[in-house]
Amino acid sequence: MAELQIVRAYAKNVDQAPRKVSLVASLVRGRTVEDALVILSHTPKRAAQPVIKAIESARANAVNNHGFDAKTLVLHTLSVTTGTRLKRFTPASRGRALPFQKKSSNILVEVTGQLKPKKAPAKATSKADKPAEKEEKN
């Protein structure tokens, strides 16, 4: 039996809190790539768009770079972790400044599937195999 091949794609520093993004990610965890994209396209949350982009990137990596069949791809891992935090301040009364953090997320998508069957190499034709064509000049 062939060993399991995994193809990854990352979306780093998505400007949304990881708690909100992981809610959307949990909707499609463990599903096929096609089902996940249909579900996310009908999800009315802003966090659905970066998850869709990460899944499409993983699918493109698997098909174009590694030769997987797009119809057999399954989400192996879909994890959301915390990204960098930006420390900011908001103005408050009496000249004060209240601190807050702008949170970001990192999305990791890993897909697995079946490789496309390899085609037999085309028979190379050389000039010796072709009959010689003679041109007649008038």
Provide key terms for this protein.
Ribosomal Protein L22, Chain A, 138 residues, alpha+beta
Structural class: alpha+beta
Largest sheet entry? 3 strands, antiparallel
The radius of gyration is 25 Å
- The helix tally amounts to 3
Count of individual beta strands: 5
> Which regions are unreliable across 5 or more consecutive residues at pLDDT < 50?
none
CATH class equals Alpha Beta
Query: What level of helicity do the residues show?
Result: 25-40%
Spatial separation of the terminal alpha carbons = 67 Å
Arrangement of strands in the largest sheet: 1-5-2
Integer count of domains: 1
Question: What is the typical, i.e. mean, pLDDT?
Answer: 90
Q: Please state the second-level CATH architecture.
A: Alpha-Beta Complex
Can you tell me about this structure?
- The chain has one domain: Ribosomal Protein L22, Chain A.
- Strands 1-5-2 form a 3-stranded antiparallel sheet, covered by helices on one side. It has a two-stranded antiparallel ribbon with strand order 3-4.
- The protein has 138 residues and is of the alpha+beta class.
- It has helices at 18-28, 33-41, 48-66, and strands at residues 7-14, 74-82, 86-91, 97-102, 105-112.
- It is built from 3 helices and 5 strands, in the order E-H-H-H-E-E-E-E.
